[in-house]
Amino acid sequence: MVQVPRNPASRTTSRPVTRTAPVSGRPTLASVQRPEAQTPGGPQVRIHLGRVFKAEGGNYFLLLGTTLFLVIFGLVMVLSSSSVDSFLADMGFFGGLLRQGMFALIGIPLMLVASRLPLAFWRRMAWPSLLLTCFFQFLVVATGLGRGTGGNTNWLNIFGIQFQPSEGIKVALVIWLGMILSKKQHQLDNWRHVFIPVFGVGGGATMLVMIGGDLGTTMIMAGILFGALFFAGVKLRLLAVPLLVGVAGAIVLAVASPNRLTRIMSFLKEGCTELSGEISASCWQPLHGTWALANGGVFGVGLGNSKAKWSWLPAADNDYIFAIIGEELGLIGCIVVLGMFILLAFAFLRIMRTATTVQAKVSTAAAMVWIIGQAFVNIGVVLGVFPVLGVPLPLISAGGTALLTTLVAIGIVLSFARGDRSSQAENDFDDNEADRA
């Protein structure tokens, strides 16, 4: 120990300095954390913000970019396909675009907000969201507030505002299935622990939509249930009986509606491919959709130059917007749309593969089956592979409720992509701090 002697003259300017060797267990001067590192706005805050911005990885931006492309492309096609009908309805040529654009301006921020919410939030919202949307659907089928189109009762009118609760049920099922199957992940081989909650609750929600007569939406919701069970790891032999019951229910629903039965029988008898005689009402839409695709050829007639949209093709901006895409942009435009949905499916699969929780994996799978499955059902209807089912093309067709709910579902999946990446970033940060220590 070396001690510097005191100097009375410098008592006010200097103090004795004692240098000692560090004692085990006693903090040294170098080990004391500097106070400015704990102040708001200091280095800790900057590190936190850096971790937030590093949280988005390739899967996040792949899904986000593909979604935004489809939404913008959909706005362009809604403008083209709805301009004539909007003008005839005294809304001007841009009426359909302005309405769809308003929902896009609401839905995209909702998607981004949903992408920032943690997994725990969606776990807490599983039951409330499902019960609320089922309550609204009950009002559709059990009260005078329900409104119907094309033989289906699937709209709810409250104070002049119309929306489809069945679209909200799809989002609620995405959240709820992830939550319930994550709790049952160690009991998936026991059918009582899987099918009673899934088909008791989820099947009940699907039945509410079936009562309204919406066969297309009912099939999509059934696909969500089976898709979630399959990707959760339930064995196929356990899914066989519920699948047969679901097919039988779809047949009963089809036979129960004369309008729907006529469309299906026309499709099965190939009545909508014969040009002899007068075109029946059930064949008018699919035939004009086929003619629109044929008129487009390989390169199309040009954006905005469709003939089918001049009141020849019903639902040109909705269920049959793919026919307008084929007519105006040709085979090349159709291939681009198909490619974008395949890319969207690829993004979903990548997020599922990197998911660190069962809930994230199952909810992502349910959203993928819903959006990608509905897209290919819609395209199959336009191509004549399926009978007319009345389901829109996700992210592209006109329809406010469908666009909002689809964007929210994608936002939920984006939150899973961020969560997995954030966890990895936090682990890397902790490892770096440990190395520095």
TrEMBL record:
Keywords: Cell cycle, Cell division, Cell membrane, Cell shape, Cell wall biogenesis/degradation, Glycosyltransferase, Membrane, Peptidoglycan synthesis, Transferase, Transmembrane, Transmembrane helix. Its main location: membrane. InterPro entries: Cell_cycle_FtsW-rel_CS, FtsW, FtsW/RodA. Its EC number is 2.4.99.28. The chain crosses the membrane at residues 60-79, 91-113, 125-145, 165-182, 194-211, 217-234, 239-257, 329-352, 364-389, 395-417. It is an enzyme of class 2 (transferase). Pfam families: FTSW_RODA_SPOVE. The keyword Transmembrane helix applies. The keyword Electron transport does not apply. It comes from the Bacteria. GO terms for biological process: cell division; cell wall organization; peptidoglycan biosynthetic process; regulation of cell shape. It catalyses: [GlcNAc-(1->4)-Mur2Ac(oyl-L-Ala-gamma-D-Glu-L-Lys-D-Ala-D-Ala)](n)-di-trans,octa-cis-undecaprenyl diphosphate + beta-D-GlcNAc-(1->4)-Mur2Ac(oyl-L-Ala-gamma-D-Glu-L-Lys-D-Ala-D-Ala)-di-trans,octa-cis-undecaprenyl diphosphate = [GlcNAc-(1->4)-Mur2Ac(oyl-L-Ala-gamma-D-Glu-L-Lys-D-Ala-D-Ala)](n+1)-di-trans,octa-cis-undecaprenyl diphosphate + di-trans,octa-cis-undecaprenyl diphosphate + H(+). GO terms for cellular component: cell division site; plasma membrane. It is a multi-pass membrane protein. Pathway: Cell wall biogenesis; peptidoglycan biosynthesis. Belongs to the SEDS family. FtsW subfamily. Peptidoglycan polymerase that is essential for cell division. This is Probable peptidoglycan glycosyltransferase FtsW. It comes from Cryobacterium serini.
